[in-house]
Design goal:
It comes from Armatimonas rosea. This is Magnesium citrate secondary transporter. Keywords: Membrane, Transmembrane, Transmembrane helix. There is one protein chain. The chain is mainly alpha-helical. The chain has one domain. About 75% of the residues lie in helices and about 0% in strands.
Amino acid sequence: MQARSFGYLRDPLFLVCLVLYFLNRFVGKPLTSGGFLHEHFNDLICVPFWLPILLWLSRKAGLRKTDAPPLLGEVLVPTAGWTVIFELWLPLLSPRFIGDPWDMTWYLVGGMGAYYFWRFTASRGALARAR
């Protein structure tokens, strides 16, 4: 069974996160005054939004040799990198940035959720083709 090709910028999860980002930005945040939509929603969708773009650019540059769904390392390494940059390094450079352990948690939750979604949809596609 061959795994389904990863959609990159046509990936359904990426497209859902793209729509959800704009809905949150232009509808959710203006209608609410704090809470999850203001504080953590973008952190939750960060990996499923940015990783397909990063992997697409890597593929176009010849750095990624396959169109398979992201491997665990391809999810965890950027997640760890974004965590270090946005929650540890930037707050050290400027008081404008604030490190938040909950942001780190939501990056990981979003990243692992995306990883399992991509694995599940790839295996489902392979099973359907095998029938």
